[in-house]
Model the fold of this input.
Amino acid sequence: MIHAQLLTLAFLALPAASAAPTDPISGSWKGLLNGFYPLEAILTLKGNKVTGVTRFAKIDFPVTGTFNAQKNLVTYTFVFANKTSTVNLSLKGNTLSGTSKNKTNVKGDTMTMTRVSSTTATGMSTTGKAEPYIMTGTVRDEKGKSIADVEVFADHTAFYNMNALGKTDAQGRYRIALAHQPGTWNAGAYLRQQFGGEPVEVRLSPDDDTPFDGSKGAVRNFTYKASDAPVGKVYTSIAHSNVELDYDTLEFTFTPDGPNAAGSTAPLTRKFVFGSGVPNVPLGRYKVSATQVLNGVKQQLLLSSRLQKEASTDVLAAFTHDSHYGETLELFLSNP
Done:
């Protein structure tokens, strides 16, 4: 019982966001549970959300919570041994103190922790140096532009389902607290985008993809390259039975209607591949035109699409997800 109560207080260590210039929560905390049992926590504040890990009895527990900046109060609930505990911590200066209660522990346990180190107001490292039990870094494109809201994760190579998550800020930076467990970690990230109203998820690998020792921490940066851009296949159908096509000379020009998945707005021209349509076109919404050479004469075809039913020499089209074929863009062809 005492063990469960102590763990409860260990979780208490979760503070949260403040609009003040100095972040009052992010950093490392140490203290005592019930005035005797050692506690440690590494916390990161973003908005009014707190994430991180807390350590008790040589075991690390991922934590999440919220912070009321007006009341300087952290409120947190978690489940341990099938019991839900409610945690309330008051922040005064660099000290967190409060109680943890559950149905079998009505009186509650007490805890006090003091911040022993801090991070910047955004919780992001500005040194570019590795810190123990911290993974930090940036996500940018090939031109060096920061990418916000990328989900970055650290995954332990030995323990099943032990991972830590974070998101990049407006400057493309992230910072993730790791569990104090022996062993190594791998880094990865997911960039989620929308093209033509369709959600697309891209898995990113770090520039340095070697596993790292959690006790030493690591800096892992990510670069989103054009070669990482998700692609789809263009399928064609004839609009009516008497359409004449010369597939050997058939080619399409795709002009992005806004940046495509590769971040480009430049037109691209691709030849038709018999039996395959037009493969490996970066996802996006396009104005599409098509030409062929029929009986020695170059001819511009009429096209229609799911987005634009009326045939034109320049048709608006977009990729959609097909459960069998994946990301596809369908065009209907006819002679002029």
Q: What stands out?
A: The longest strand covers residues 105-118. The mean pLDDT is 82. The CA atoms of residues 285 and 318 lie 4 Å apart. The longest helix spans residues 2-11.
